Amino acid sequence: MTNDSKPDRHSAANQLQVSGNPFIGGEARDCPGSKVRTTIYPADGSEGFTFVDCGPDEVDAAVVAARTAWEGVWRDIGPGTRKQLLLALADAVIANGEKLTLCDSLDIGKPVTAAAGEAFPAAGFLRYYAESIDKVFAGNVAPTGAGAMELQVWRPRGVVGAITPWNFPLINACFKLGPALAAGNTVVIKPSELSPRSTLLLAQLARDVGIPDGVINVIPGGGATGDALVRHPGVDMLTFTGSTATGKAVLRSVSDSTIKPVLLECGGKSPEILFEDMASLGLPGVASQVARGALWNQGQVCVARSRILVQQGIYEPFLEALVAAAATMVPGDPALPTTMFGPLASARQCSQVEDYIQSGVEDGARLLLDGRNPAGCEGGSFVGPTIFADVPSSARIAKEEIFGPVLCVMPFADEDEAMTLANSTDYGLAATIWTRDLVRANRMAGHLQAGKVRIVASLAEVEGAGFCHSAEPCGQSGYGVEGGPNGLRSYMRQQSIEFCMG
Protein backbone atom coordinates (compact mmCIF):
# COMPACT_ATOMS: atom_id res chain seq x y z
CA MET A 1 0.00 0.00 0.00
CA THR A 2 1.50 3.29 -1.08
CA ASN A 3 1.16 6.55 0.85
CA ASP A 4 -0.09 8.55 -2.15
CA SER A 5 -3.51 9.11 -0.58
CA LYS A 6 -2.28 10.25 2.85
CA PRO A 7 -2.06 14.04 2.16
CA ASP A 8 -5.63 14.16 0.82
CA ARG A 9 -6.86 11.97 3.66
CA HIS A 10 -5.34 14.17 6.36
CA SER A 11 -6.59 17.32 4.67
CA ALA A 12 -10.10 15.91 4.52
CA ALA A 13 -9.91 14.87 8.18
CA ASN A 14 -8.91 18.37 9.23
CA GLN A 15 -11.85 19.86 7.36
CA LEU A 16 -14.35 17.64 9.18
CA GLN A 17 -13.89 19.59 12.43
CA VAL A 18 -15.22 16.84 14.69
CA SER A 19 -14.37 17.20 18.36
CA GLY A 20 -13.00 14.14 20.14
CA ASN A 21 -14.60 15.23 23.43
CA PRO A 22 -17.74 13.49 24.66
CA PHE A 23 -20.96 15.12 23.48
CA ILE A 24 -22.96 15.70 26.65
CA GLY A 25 -25.97 17.95 27.17
CA GLY A 26 -25.72 19.54 23.73
CA GLU A 27 -22.00 20.33 23.71
CA ALA A 28 -18.60 18.79 23.19
CA ARG A 29 -17.50 18.81 26.82
CA ASP A 30 -13.91 19.49 27.81
CA CYS A 31 -12.35 16.78 29.96
CA PRO A 32 -9.06 18.14 31.34
CA GLY A 33 -6.64 15.41 32.30
CA SER A 34 -8.70 12.60 30.83
CA LYS A 35 -7.10 9.71 29.00
CA VAL A 36 -7.27 9.77 25.22
CA ARG A 37 -7.25 7.21 22.44
CA THR A 38 -6.29 7.50 18.79
CA THR A 39 -7.79 5.55 15.91
CA ILE A 40 -5.43 3.75 13.54
CA TYR A 41 -6.04 3.96 9.80
CA PRO A 42 -6.01 0.28 8.85
CA ALA A 43 -4.88 0.82 5.27
CA ASP A 44 -1.38 1.85 6.34
CA GLY A 45 -1.22 1.79 10.16
CA SER A 46 -0.94 5.57 10.57
CA GLU A 47 -2.58 7.47 13.45
CA GLY A 48 -5.92 9.12 12.88
CA PHE A 49 -8.57 10.64 15.17
CA THR A 50 -7.79 11.40 18.81
CA PHE A 51 -10.68 11.30 21.28
CA VAL A 52 -11.38 11.15 24.99
CA ASP A 53 -11.49 7.69 26.54
CA CYS A 54 -14.46 8.41 28.77
CA GLY A 55 -14.42 7.26 32.38
CA PRO A 56 -17.15 6.93 35.02
CA ASP A 57 -17.40 10.70 35.53
CA GLU A 58 -18.16 11.36 31.86
CA VAL A 59 -20.57 8.44 31.72
CA ASP A 60 -22.39 9.72 34.78
CA ALA A 61 -22.59 13.25 33.36
CA ALA A 62 -24.05 11.90 30.13
CA VAL A 63 -26.68 9.82 31.95
CA VAL A 64 -27.63 12.79 34.14
CA ALA A 65 -27.97 14.99 31.05
CA ALA A 66 -30.14 12.37 29.37
CA ARG A 67 -32.33 12.02 32.48
CA THR A 68 -32.73 15.79 32.77
CA ALA A 69 -33.71 16.07 29.11
CA TRP A 70 -36.17 13.19 29.36
CA GLU A 71 -37.94 14.43 32.48
CA GLY A 72 -37.78 18.08 31.50
CA VAL A 73 -38.63 18.03 27.80
CA TRP A 74 -38.54 14.94 25.65
CA ARG A 75 -41.03 12.51 27.21
CA ASP A 76 -43.80 15.11 27.13
CA ILE A 77 -43.02 16.58 23.72
CA GLY A 78 -45.90 16.07 21.27
CA PRO A 79 -45.65 13.35 18.63
CA GLY A 80 -45.82 15.87 15.82
CA THR A 81 -42.86 17.82 17.18
CA ARG A 82 -40.80 14.68 17.71
CA LYS A 83 -41.62 13.61 14.18
CA GLN A 84 -40.49 16.89 12.65
CA LEU A 85 -37.25 16.91 14.63
CA LEU A 86 -36.36 13.38 13.54
CA LEU A 87 -37.18 14.23 9.93
CA ALA A 88 -34.94 17.28 10.20
CA LEU A 89 -32.12 15.10 11.51
CA ALA A 90 -32.62 12.70 8.60
CA ASP A 91 -32.37 15.63 6.18
CA ALA A 92 -29.17 16.73 7.91
CA VAL A 93 -27.70 13.25 7.52
CA ILE A 94 -28.29 13.39 3.77
CA ALA A 95 -26.98 16.96 3.51
CA ASN A 96 -23.85 16.00 5.43
CA GLY A 97 -23.59 12.50 4.04
CA GLU A 98 -20.17 13.03 2.49
CA LYS A 99 -18.71 14.17 5.81
CA LEU A 100 -20.37 11.44 7.85
CA THR A 101 -19.30 8.61 5.58
CA LEU A 102 -15.82 10.06 5.25
CA CYS A 103 -15.56 9.76 9.04
CA ASP A 104 -16.17 6.02 8.77
CA SER A 105 -13.79 5.65 5.87
CA LEU A 106 -11.03 7.41 7.81
CA ASP A 107 -11.65 5.46 11.02
CA ILE A 108 -11.97 1.89 9.75
CA GLY A 109 -10.74 2.02 6.16
CA LYS A 110 -14.16 1.57 4.58
CA PRO A 111 -13.76 2.24 0.83
CA VAL A 112 -15.02 5.74 0.11
CA THR A 113 -17.18 4.51 -2.76
CA ALA A 114 -18.85 1.90 -0.54
CA ALA A 115 -19.23 4.30 2.38
CA ALA A 116 -20.84 6.96 0.19
CA GLY A 117 -24.04 4.95 -0.05
CA GLU A 118 -24.50 4.53 3.71
CA ALA A 119 -25.97 7.95 4.48
CA PHE A 120 -29.18 6.97 2.67
CA PRO A 121 -30.07 3.92 4.81
CA ALA A 122 -28.95 5.77 7.96
CA ALA A 123 -31.33 8.63 7.18
CA GLY A 124 -33.94 6.10 6.11
CA PHE A 125 -34.13 4.57 9.58
CA LEU A 126 -34.62 8.02 11.11
CA ARG A 127 -37.35 8.84 8.59
CA TYR A 128 -39.11 5.52 9.00
CA TYR A 129 -39.40 5.89 12.76
CA ALA A 130 -40.26 9.56 12.52
CA GLU A 131 -43.20 8.65 10.30
CA SER A 132 -44.16 5.81 12.65
CA ILE A 133 -44.70 8.12 15.62
CA ASP A 134 -48.25 9.10 14.67
CA LYS A 135 -49.15 5.84 12.91
CA VAL A 136 -48.36 3.05 15.36
CA PHE A 137 -51.41 2.24 17.49
CA ALA A 138 -50.54 3.52 20.97
CA GLY A 139 -52.72 1.37 23.23
CA ASN A 140 -55.97 -0.44 23.99
CA VAL A 141 -59.06 -0.03 26.11
CA ALA A 142 -59.62 -3.26 28.03
CA PRO A 143 -63.13 -4.61 28.70
CA THR A 144 -64.33 -3.78 32.24
CA GLY A 145 -67.52 -3.63 34.25
CA ALA A 146 -69.72 -0.56 34.31
CA GLY A 147 -68.15 2.31 36.24
CA ALA A 148 -64.57 1.24 35.46
CA MET A 149 -62.21 1.73 32.56
CA GLU A 150 -58.73 0.41 31.88
CA LEU A 151 -56.32 1.93 29.37
CA GLN A 152 -53.36 -0.18 28.26
CA VAL A 153 -50.80 2.24 26.88
CA TRP A 154 -47.21 2.19 25.69
CA ARG A 155 -44.72 4.49 27.43
CA PRO A 156 -41.08 5.33 26.77
CA ARG A 157 -38.62 3.50 28.98
CA GLY A 158 -36.57 6.59 29.86
CA VAL A 159 -32.80 6.73 29.37
CA VAL A 160 -31.54 4.21 26.83
CA GLY A 161 -27.89 3.16 26.83
CA ALA A 162 -26.78 2.13 23.33
CA ILE A 163 -23.54 0.38 22.41
CA THR A 164 -22.79 0.16 18.68
CA PRO A 165 -20.20 -1.79 16.67
CA TRP A 166 -17.57 -0.63 14.21
CA ASN A 167 -18.62 -2.31 10.97
CA PHE A 168 -21.37 0.20 10.02
CA PRO A 169 -20.94 3.05 12.53
CA LEU A 170 -23.34 5.61 11.05
CA ILE A 171 -26.03 3.11 10.09
CA ASN A 172 -25.95 1.37 13.46
CA ALA A 173 -26.17 4.67 15.34
CA CYS A 174 -29.28 5.71 13.39
CA PHE A 175 -30.74 2.20 13.63
CA LYS A 176 -30.83 2.61 17.40
CA LEU A 177 -31.48 6.34 17.67
CA GLY A 178 -34.49 6.22 15.33
CA PRO A 179 -36.78 3.93 17.36
CA ALA A 180 -35.41 5.02 20.75
CA LEU A 181 -36.13 8.71 20.12
CA ALA A 182 -39.40 8.07 18.31
CA ALA A 183 -40.61 6.11 21.33
CA GLY A 184 -39.88 9.13 23.54
CA ASN A 185 -36.60 8.04 25.15
CA THR A 186 -33.34 9.91 25.47
CA VAL A 187 -30.08 8.16 24.57
CA VAL A 188 -26.51 7.80 25.74
CA ILE A 189 -24.61 6.09 22.96
CA LYS A 190 -21.14 4.56 23.11
CA PRO A 191 -19.71 3.94 19.66
CA SER A 192 -16.87 1.51 19.09
CA GLU A 193 -13.43 2.82 19.99
CA LEU A 194 -12.41 2.00 16.40
CA SER A 195 -15.00 4.32 14.85
CA PRO A 196 -16.39 7.08 17.10
CA ARG A 197 -16.14 10.01 14.71
CA SER A 198 -19.38 9.76 12.69
CA THR A 199 -21.50 9.31 15.83
CA LEU A 200 -19.94 12.41 17.42
CA LEU A 201 -20.67 14.38 14.25
CA LEU A 202 -24.23 13.01 14.18
CA ALA A 203 -24.83 14.36 17.69
CA GLN A 204 -23.64 17.80 16.58
CA LEU A 205 -26.10 17.70 13.66
CA ALA A 206 -28.92 16.74 16.04
CA ARG A 207 -28.21 19.81 18.14
CA ASP A 208 -28.07 22.02 15.04
CA VAL A 209 -31.52 20.93 13.82
CA GLY A 210 -33.08 21.70 17.21
CA ILE A 211 -33.22 18.39 19.04
CA PRO A 212 -33.09 19.48 22.70
CA ASP A 213 -29.81 19.34 24.59
CA GLY A 214 -29.29 16.07 26.39
CA VAL A 215 -31.59 14.00 24.19
CA ILE A 216 -28.57 12.52 22.37
CA ASN A 217 -25.29 12.08 24.25
CA VAL A 218 -22.16 10.37 22.93
CA ILE A 219 -19.43 8.92 25.15
CA PRO A 220 -16.48 7.60 23.13
CA GLY A 221 -14.18 5.10 24.77
CA GLY A 222 -13.25 1.46 25.15
CA GLY A 223 -14.61 -1.51 27.04
CA ALA A 224 -14.44 0.16 30.44
CA THR A 225 -16.59 3.01 29.13
CA GLY A 226 -19.21 0.56 27.91
CA ASP A 227 -19.18 -1.34 31.18
CA ALA A 228 -19.71 1.87 33.15
CA LEU A 229 -22.71 2.65 30.95
CA VAL A 230 -24.12 -0.86 31.34
CA ARG A 231 -23.83 -0.76 35.13
CA HIS A 232 -25.12 2.79 35.61
CA PRO A 233 -28.30 2.77 37.74
CA GLY A 234 -29.67 5.75 35.81
CA VAL A 235 -29.91 3.76 32.57
CA ASP A 236 -33.39 2.27 32.11
CA MET A 237 -32.68 0.06 29.09
CA LEU A 238 -29.68 -1.21 27.12
CA THR A 239 -29.41 -1.97 23.43
CA PHE A 240 -26.25 -3.67 22.20
CA THR A 241 -24.95 -4.83 18.83
CA GLY A 242 -21.63 -6.66 18.71
CA SER A 243 -19.95 -9.96 19.36
CA THR A 244 -21.51 -12.76 21.37
CA ALA A 245 -18.62 -12.68 23.83
CA THR A 246 -19.22 -8.99 24.57
CA GLY A 247 -22.97 -9.56 24.71
CA LYS A 248 -22.44 -12.15 27.44
CA ALA A 249 -20.24 -9.66 29.31
CA VAL A 250 -23.06 -7.09 29.07
CA LEU A 251 -25.50 -9.55 30.62
CA ARG A 252 -23.08 -10.37 33.43
CA SER A 253 -22.59 -6.69 34.22
CA VAL A 254 -26.33 -6.07 34.23
CA SER A 255 -26.98 -8.99 36.57
CA ASP A 256 -24.26 -7.74 38.92
CA SER A 257 -25.64 -4.20 39.09
CA THR A 258 -29.21 -3.35 38.16
CA ILE A 259 -32.27 -4.95 36.62
CA LYS A 260 -33.08 -3.48 33.21
CA PRO A 261 -34.27 -4.79 29.84
CA VAL A 262 -31.52 -5.61 27.35
CA LEU A 263 -31.82 -5.80 23.57
CA LEU A 264 -29.03 -7.93 22.08
CA GLU A 265 -27.91 -8.57 18.52
CA CYS A 266 -24.72 -10.60 18.68
CA GLY A 267 -22.66 -12.84 16.44
CA GLY A 268 -23.74 -15.00 13.55
CA LYS A 269 -22.62 -17.87 11.35
CA SER A 270 -25.32 -17.83 8.73
CA PRO A 271 -25.80 -20.63 6.19
CA GLU A 272 -26.46 -20.23 2.45
CA ILE A 273 -28.06 -23.43 1.12
CA LEU A 274 -27.96 -24.15 -2.63
CA PHE A 275 -29.99 -26.97 -4.17
CA GLU A 276 -29.28 -28.56 -7.54
CA ASP A 277 -32.36 -27.05 -9.19
CA MET A 278 -30.60 -23.65 -9.18
CA ALA A 279 -28.25 -24.85 -11.94
CA SER A 280 -30.90 -23.81 -14.47
CA LEU A 281 -30.18 -20.16 -13.60
CA GLY A 282 -26.50 -20.53 -14.50
CA LEU A 283 -23.99 -21.24 -11.76
CA PRO A 284 -21.71 -18.27 -12.60
CA GLY A 285 -24.59 -15.88 -11.92
CA VAL A 286 -25.55 -17.63 -8.71
CA ALA A 287 -21.92 -17.71 -7.54
CA SER A 288 -21.52 -14.01 -8.26
CA GLN A 289 -24.51 -13.13 -6.08
CA VAL A 290 -23.38 -15.46 -3.30
CA ALA A 291 -19.86 -14.01 -3.33
CA ARG A 292 -21.06 -10.41 -3.29
CA GLY A 293 -23.43 -11.06 -0.39
CA ALA A 294 -20.95 -13.00 1.73
CA LEU A 295 -17.97 -10.70 1.08
CA TRP A 296 -19.80 -7.37 1.40
CA ASN A 297 -17.89 -5.00 3.68
CA GLN A 298 -14.96 -7.45 3.60
CA GLY A 299 -17.17 -10.03 5.30
CA GLN A 300 -17.48 -7.82 8.38
CA VAL A 301 -21.25 -8.24 8.58
CA CYS A 302 -23.08 -10.10 11.34
CA VAL A 303 -25.54 -11.71 8.91
CA ALA A 304 -22.92 -12.61 6.27
CA ARG A 305 -23.87 -15.97 4.74
CA SER A 306 -20.34 -17.33 4.99
CA ARG A 307 -21.26 -21.02 5.40
CA ILE A 308 -22.16 -22.12 1.89
CA LEU A 309 -23.87 -25.52 1.71
CA VAL A 310 -24.06 -26.91 -1.84
CA GLN A 311 -25.86 -30.03 -3.05
CA GLN A 312 -23.46 -32.63 -4.39
CA GLY A 313 -24.68 -32.59 -8.00
CA ILE A 314 -23.50 -28.98 -8.52
CA TYR A 315 -20.74 -28.88 -5.90
CA GLU A 316 -17.56 -28.85 -8.01
CA PRO A 317 -18.82 -26.59 -10.83
CA PHE A 318 -20.19 -24.17 -8.25
CA LEU A 319 -16.83 -24.08 -6.46
CA GLU A 320 -15.14 -23.18 -9.73
CA ALA A 321 -17.61 -20.37 -10.36
CA LEU A 322 -17.36 -19.09 -6.79
CA VAL A 323 -13.57 -18.86 -6.90
CA ALA A 324 -13.75 -17.03 -10.22
CA ALA A 325 -16.27 -14.53 -8.82
CA ALA A 326 -14.36 -13.91 -5.58
CA ALA A 327 -11.03 -13.51 -7.38
CA THR A 328 -12.35 -10.37 -9.09
CA MET A 329 -12.68 -8.64 -5.70
CA VAL A 330 -9.22 -7.17 -5.41
CA PRO A 331 -8.20 -5.38 -2.17
CA GLY A 332 -6.92 -1.85 -2.60
CA ASP A 333 -6.55 1.66 -1.25
CA PRO A 334 -9.90 2.63 0.32
CA ALA A 335 -9.32 6.29 -0.60
CA LEU A 336 -9.49 5.52 -4.33
CA PRO A 337 -12.92 5.66 -6.00
CA THR A 338 -12.15 2.47 -7.93
CA THR A 339 -11.67 0.39 -4.76
CA MET A 340 -14.59 -1.71 -3.58
CA PHE A 341 -12.70 -4.08 -1.26
CA GLY A 342 -10.72 -2.39 1.50
CA PRO A 343 -8.78 -3.43 4.58
CA LEU A 344 -10.21 -5.04 7.67
CA ALA A 345 -11.08 -2.57 10.42
CA SER A 346 -7.98 -3.08 12.54
CA ALA A 347 -4.71 -4.94 12.84
CA ARG A 348 -6.26 -7.05 15.60
CA GLN A 349 -9.14 -8.06 13.37
CA CYS A 350 -6.72 -8.88 10.57
CA SER A 351 -4.65 -11.09 12.86
CA GLN A 352 -7.75 -12.93 14.09
CA VAL A 353 -8.93 -13.62 10.54
CA GLU A 354 -5.48 -14.89 9.53
CA ASP A 355 -5.50 -17.18 12.56
CA TYR A 356 -8.85 -18.62 11.46
CA ILE A 357 -7.50 -19.24 7.96
CA GLN A 358 -4.55 -21.14 9.39
CA SER A 359 -6.87 -23.15 11.62
CA GLY A 360 -8.91 -24.12 8.56
CA VAL A 361 -5.80 -25.49 6.90
CA GLU A 362 -4.86 -27.40 10.05
CA ASP A 363 -8.39 -28.83 10.37
CA GLY A 364 -8.16 -30.35 6.91
CA ALA A 365 -10.28 -28.02 4.80
CA ARG A 366 -9.25 -27.55 1.15
CA LEU A 367 -7.95 -24.00 0.60
CA LEU A 368 -8.99 -22.89 -2.89
CA LEU A 369 -8.33 -19.16 -2.62
CA ASP A 370 -5.92 -17.69 -0.06
CA GLY A 371 -6.44 -14.00 0.67
CA ARG A 372 -3.57 -13.56 3.09
CA ASN A 373 -0.93 -10.94 2.26
CA PRO A 374 -2.51 -9.59 -0.94
CA ALA A 375 -0.04 -8.00 -3.36
CA GLY A 376 0.30 -4.22 -3.22
CA CYS A 377 -1.26 -3.93 0.24
CA GLU A 378 1.83 -4.17 2.40
CA GLY A 379 1.70 -2.30 5.71
CA GLY A 380 -2.06 -2.44 6.03
CA SER A 381 -4.62 -4.76 7.63
CA PHE A 382 -5.63 -6.50 4.43
CA VAL A 383 -7.04 -9.97 3.85
CA GLY A 384 -8.53 -10.72 0.46
CA PRO A 385 -11.35 -13.14 -0.37
CA THR A 386 -10.57 -16.60 0.98
CA ILE A 387 -12.43 -19.79 0.07
CA PHE A 388 -12.29 -23.20 1.74
CA ALA A 389 -13.95 -26.30 0.33
CA ASP A 390 -14.71 -29.66 1.97
CA VAL A 391 -14.84 -28.00 5.36
CA PRO A 392 -15.37 -30.49 8.21
CA SER A 393 -18.46 -29.59 10.21
CA SER A 394 -16.33 -29.79 13.36
CA ALA A 395 -13.77 -27.23 12.14
CA ARG A 396 -13.53 -23.87 13.90
CA ILE A 397 -14.11 -22.03 10.64
CA ALA A 398 -17.39 -23.92 10.21
CA LYS A 399 -18.71 -23.21 13.70
CA GLU A 400 -17.31 -19.84 14.88
CA GLU A 401 -17.93 -16.33 13.61
CA ILE A 402 -14.86 -15.12 11.71
CA PHE A 403 -16.10 -11.64 10.75
CA GLY A 404 -13.87 -11.47 7.72
CA PRO A 405 -13.78 -12.49 4.05
CA VAL A 406 -13.57 -16.25 4.62
CA LEU A 407 -16.11 -18.55 2.94
CA CYS A 408 -16.61 -22.15 4.06
CA VAL A 409 -18.14 -24.42 1.41
CA MET A 410 -19.57 -27.80 2.37
CA PRO A 411 -21.40 -30.45 0.28
CA PHE A 412 -24.69 -32.09 1.22
CA ALA A 413 -26.65 -34.98 -0.24
CA ASP A 414 -30.26 -34.14 0.57
CA GLU A 415 -32.58 -31.84 2.50
CA ASP A 416 -32.10 -33.63 5.81
CA GLU A 417 -28.32 -33.30 5.67
CA ALA A 418 -28.61 -29.67 4.62
CA MET A 419 -30.78 -28.95 7.67
CA THR A 420 -28.36 -30.73 9.99
CA LEU A 421 -25.40 -28.75 8.65
CA ALA A 422 -27.31 -25.46 8.65
CA ASN A 423 -28.24 -25.79 12.32
CA SER A 424 -24.85 -27.09 13.44
CA THR A 425 -23.75 -23.84 15.12
CA ASP A 426 -24.99 -22.06 18.23
CA TYR A 427 -25.93 -18.93 16.29
CA GLY A 428 -29.26 -17.94 14.80
CA LEU A 429 -29.24 -14.66 12.87
CA ALA A 430 -30.02 -15.39 9.24
CA ALA A 431 -30.13 -18.03 6.50
CA THR A 432 -30.67 -18.23 2.75
CA ILE A 433 -32.19 -21.07 0.73
CA TRP A 434 -31.63 -21.21 -3.04
CA THR A 435 -34.28 -23.44 -4.63
CA ARG A 436 -37.18 -23.32 -7.07
CA ASP A 437 -39.13 -25.77 -4.90
CA LEU A 438 -41.06 -23.36 -2.69
CA VAL A 439 -42.78 -26.14 -0.75
CA ARG A 440 -39.37 -27.44 0.30
CA ALA A 441 -38.14 -23.93 1.05
CA ASN A 442 -41.12 -23.16 3.29
CA ARG A 443 -40.77 -26.48 5.08
CA MET A 444 -37.09 -25.82 5.76
CA ALA A 445 -37.65 -22.23 6.84
CA GLY A 446 -39.77 -23.41 9.73
CA HIS A 447 -36.94 -25.55 11.08
CA LEU A 448 -33.96 -23.29 10.48
CA GLN A 449 -32.46 -21.63 13.54
CA ALA A 450 -32.50 -18.12 12.11
CA GLY A 451 -34.21 -14.82 12.78
CA LYS A 452 -34.46 -14.10 9.05
CA VAL A 453 -34.77 -16.69 6.28
CA ARG A 454 -34.35 -15.54 2.69
CA ILE A 455 -35.64 -17.78 -0.11
CA VAL A 456 -34.15 -17.13 -3.55
CA ALA A 457 -35.52 -18.65 -6.76
CA SER A 458 -34.27 -16.09 -9.28
CA LEU A 459 -31.27 -13.91 -10.08
CA ALA A 460 -33.51 -10.90 -10.57
CA GLU A 461 -32.93 -7.95 -8.22
CA VAL A 462 -36.13 -7.37 -6.24
CA GLU A 463 -37.07 -4.84 -3.60
CA GLY A 464 -37.64 -6.29 -0.15
CA ALA A 465 -39.37 -4.92 2.93
CA GLY A 466 -36.70 -2.26 3.44
CA PHE A 467 -37.00 -0.30 6.65
CA CYS A 468 -40.13 -2.25 7.59
CA HIS A 469 -38.06 -5.44 7.97
CA SER A 470 -38.34 -6.77 11.49
CA ALA A 471 -36.80 -9.89 13.05
CA GLU A 472 -35.52 -11.37 16.28
CA PRO A 473 -32.32 -13.44 16.51
CA CYS A 474 -32.16 -16.72 18.37
CA GLY A 475 -29.56 -18.93 20.01
CA GLN A 476 -26.26 -17.24 20.81
CA SER A 477 -27.09 -14.43 18.37
CA GLY A 478 -29.17 -12.64 20.99
CA TYR A 479 -32.80 -11.73 21.55
CA GLY A 480 -35.24 -8.88 21.14
CA VAL A 481 -36.95 -7.51 18.03
CA GLU A 482 -35.24 -4.81 16.00
CA GLY A 483 -36.43 -3.08 12.85
CA GLY A 484 -39.87 -2.28 11.58
CA PRO A 485 -42.88 -1.33 13.70
CA ASN A 486 -42.27 -4.15 16.17
CA GLY A 487 -38.78 -2.78 16.75
CA LEU A 488 -40.36 0.42 18.04
CA ARG A 489 -42.16 -1.57 20.73
CA SER A 490 -38.79 -2.87 21.99
CA TYR A 491 -38.01 0.63 23.21
CA MET A 492 -41.30 1.01 25.11
CA ARG A 493 -42.97 -0.48 28.16
CA GLN A 494 -46.63 -1.25 28.60
CA GLN A 495 -48.55 0.45 31.38
CA SER A 496 -52.13 -0.09 32.47
CA ILE A 497 -54.22 2.76 33.87
CA GLU A 498 -57.39 1.69 35.68
CA PHE A 499 -60.18 4.17 36.37
CA CYS A 500 -62.64 3.21 39.13
CA MET A 501 -65.48 5.71 38.85
CA GLY A 502 -68.37 3.84 40.44
Question: Could you write a compact summary of the structure shown?
Answer:
The chain is α/β, with parallel strands linked by helices.
Quick tags:
502 residues; alpha/beta; Aldehyde Dehydrogenase, Chain A, domain 1; Aldehyde Dehydrogenase, Chain A, domain 2; seven-stranded mixed sheet; 17 helices; 20 strands; 38% helix; globular; disordered N terminus
What is the highest CATH level, the class of the largest domain? Answer: Alpha Beta
What radius of gyration results from the CA coordinates?
A: 24 Å
- Sequence stretches where pLDDT stays below 50 over 5 or more residues: 1-7
Taken as a percent bin, the fraction of beta residues is 15-25%
Shape: globular
How far apart are the termini?
80 Å
Domain count:
2
**Would you tell me the overall average pLDDT?**
95
CATH architecture of the largest domain: 3-Layer(aba) Sandwich
How many helices? The count is: 17
- CATH homologous superfamily heading of the largest domain: Aldehyde Dehydrogenase, Chain A, domain 1
CATH topology description of the largest domain: Aldehyde Dehydrogenase, Chain A, domain 1
The overall strand count is 20
Arrangement of strands in the largest sheet: 14-15-16-13-12-17-18
Q: Report the biggest beta sheet as strand number plus sense, adding barrel if it closes.
A: 7 strands, mixed
Q: Work out the helicity level.
A: 25-40%
Question: Given the helix and strand composition, which structural class is it?
Answer: alpha/beta
